[in-house]
Design goal:
The structure is a single chain. The chain contains ten helices and twelve strands. It has 345 residues and is α/β, with parallel strands linked by helices. Strands 2-1-3-4-5-11 form a six-stranded parallel beta sheet, sandwiched between helices. It has a six-stranded mixed beta sheet with strand order 7-6-8-9-10-12, sandwiched between helices. Strand 8, helix 9 and strand 9 form a beta-alpha-beta unit. Helix 1 crosses helix 2. The longest helix is centred in the C-terminal third of the chain and has 18 residues. The relative contact order is 0.12.
Length: 345
């Protein structure tokens, strides 16, 4: 859609339409009615004024747009932005970051703004792994989804943490310590469908856990499903479990659940890991403050940001016809703490 189309549909000259859309209507005494008509028509036709005053586009601008929900303002997941910035710099690109607060309208506006400013590509990022509706503006050029999967089929590849492997790693930590029974899950399970809404990570972690436990002949004795993965829900789920039976090991589907589990175990007179081993996921800052320090499988935020930019730059350099894998998995390392030990008795 061009400026000439807007002018014709509004019944004004191209010059008048341009003056209205650049904010100079009042200055040059264009009537309020003409201004209203031009702006309304531009919105109806989906016209977007380029913010770059240049002739025909030639070459690249060496810029990358980074559109996130709450990644940029979150101290915990902010390492994704840092990884993206560092990787962009190493490849000779500048990164521009915009945050939507999770508002789909703002997401679309940010995606459009990045394209209007001729960003060579856009990274569309989520604070936690979830299924997203991809803004239409992302299809106007190279794009990569970070920590997100598309709700519908798209040409944009996804960069994701390897949650299935993370589940396998957590299970192996317990199996290698000698745990083969009285293992309970806190947060989700026992089936891979028994997860909170939008629980992409939960389903994949459960898949990896079950795979290793079954191969090792280890018994998952039960699970406590939690609607939210908070300390409060971890505490309540563990306290409820302890009223019925005594676990030997707890697999908490994230570290905040594990923190709540610690409190419930302490109140029950049980110690970690002497009485009950506990393992978590994500390496949330809370894990380093727990005593003993929690053994957890870390979300590699920095590495996710690096990989997303690397994949995007490859698309930019090789052009639209470039063929790249649609899913890129980043390993999740185990952070050893003191919360897992061999079972007693």
């Amino acid at each position: 859609m061009t400026l000439a189309d807007v002018a014709a549909a509004s019944g004004v000259s191209i010059t008048t339409a341009s003056l209205v859309l650049t904010g100079r209507a009042r200055e040059l005494r264009i009537s309020a009615e003409a201004e209203r008509r031009v702006r309304s028509t531009a919105q109806e036709l989906g016209y977007r004024r380029s913010t770059v005053n240049a002739g025909p586009r030639a070459g690249r601008t060496q810029t990358i747009g980074f559109v996130s929900d709450t990644v940029a303002s979150s101290g915990w997941t902010g390492d994704m932005v840092k990884g993206a910035v560092d990787a962009a710099y190493r490849h000779g690109f500048m990164l521009f970051v915009g945050e939507s607060g999770g508002d789909p309208v703002v997401e679309r506006a940010l995606a459009d703004a990045m394209r209007d400013r001729r960003a060579d590509g856009v990274v569309f990022a989520s604070m936690y792994t979830r299924t997203v509706t991809v803004p239409d503006g992302l299809y106007d050029g190279p794009a990569v989804l970070l920590n997100a999967t598309p709700a519908t089929r798209t040409a944009a590849p996804s960069v994701l943490p390897d949650e299935v492997q993370a589940g396998r790693s957590a299970a192996r930590v317990l199996v290698e310590a000698g745990h083969d029974r009285h293992i309970h899950l806190i947060g989700a399970g026992p089936g891979t469908c028994d997860v909170p809404p939008h629980g992409v990570a939960a389903a994949e972690r459960l898949l990896g856990l079950r795979e290793v436990f079954e191969e090792a002949g280890a018994e998952v004795a039960g699970a406590r499903w939690c609607p939210k993965w908070t300390q409060e829900h971890g505490y309540e789920a563990t306290a409820d479990l302890l009223r019925e039976r005594r676990p030997k090991a707890l697999v908490c589907l994230n570290d905040r659940l594990a923190s709540g589990a610690y409190q419930a175990l302490t109140e029950a007179g049980l110690s970690v890991p002497e009485d009950v081993s506990v393992i978590g996921f994500e390496d949330h800052p809370i894990a380093s403050w727990m005593r003993p320090r929690l053994t957890t499988v870390a979300l590699p935020h920095y590495e996710l940001g690096v990989r997303a930019v690397k994949v995007l730059v490859d698309l930019v350099v090789r052009g639209r016809g470039a063929r790249v894998p649609m899913t890129h998995r980043v390993p999740m390392p185990v952070r050893q703490g003191g919360s897992v030990a061999a079972p007693r008795g």
